[in-house]
Amino acid sequence: MLPTEFGNPLWFTDADLVELKGTTLHRATEVHKKILKTLFDEKVKKLVEKLLVIDGNPESEVRFEDFRRAHIITAVIGSGILSLAWATSQLGWIAGPTVLFLFSFVTFYTSSLLATCYRTGDPDTGKRTTLTWMLFGPI
């Protein structure tokens, strides 16, 4: 039987926090959680609600959990970008630039796929999709 819901392993559950109570990790987690919740409530939620009204989909809702997952993805991608120079230097003068050039084509291809997903129907005059509007803004 498949699970009906998935937990987020990158975020502590309440049971995990009970075990960590009294440690500096518990305090740091609570502070970071509070900062993210404040940022979401004061800025992100209001901005997304305005974008959803502009996009013609005001019934949709963005939850704090969605924002949290996006924040985690941003952190993972950021660390990947920082390790790119080290990885290239480990490959050497021939393989390093070759692999970098290869991945630039992969990036170009995936970004062109995202660009075609930006509008439904016609890529120039079609209606903007909500997810891409929130991610990329007006183009």
Brief description of this entry?
With 139 residues, the protein is mainly alpha-helical.
Describe this structure as you would to a colleague:
With 139 residues, the protein is mainly α. It is built from five helices and two strands, in the order ααααββα. It has helices at residues 14-20, 24-54, 64-82, 84-117, 130-136; strands spanning 119-120, 127-128. It has a two-stranded antiparallel ribbon with strand order 1-2. The longest helix has 34 residues, at 84-117.
Oligomeric description of these chains:
single chain
Global structural class: mainly alpha
Rg of Cα set: 20 Å
Order of secondary-structure elements: HHHHEEH
Tell me the β content: under 5%
Give me the count of strands.
2
How far is it from the N-terminal to the C-terminal residue, by CA? Answer: 44 Å
- Please work out how many helical segments DSSP would assign: 5
- Major sheet strand order: 1-2
What's the average pLDDT? Answer: 75
Question: What gross morphology would you assign?
Answer: flat
Fraction in helix: over 70%
Poorly predicted runs are: none
Largest sheet: 2 strands, antiparallel
Features:
139 residues, mainly alpha, flat, 3% strand
Fold blueprint:
Layout: H1 14-20, H2 24-54, H3 64-82, H4 84-117, E1 119-120, E2 127-128, H5 130-136
Antiparallel strand pairs: 1-2
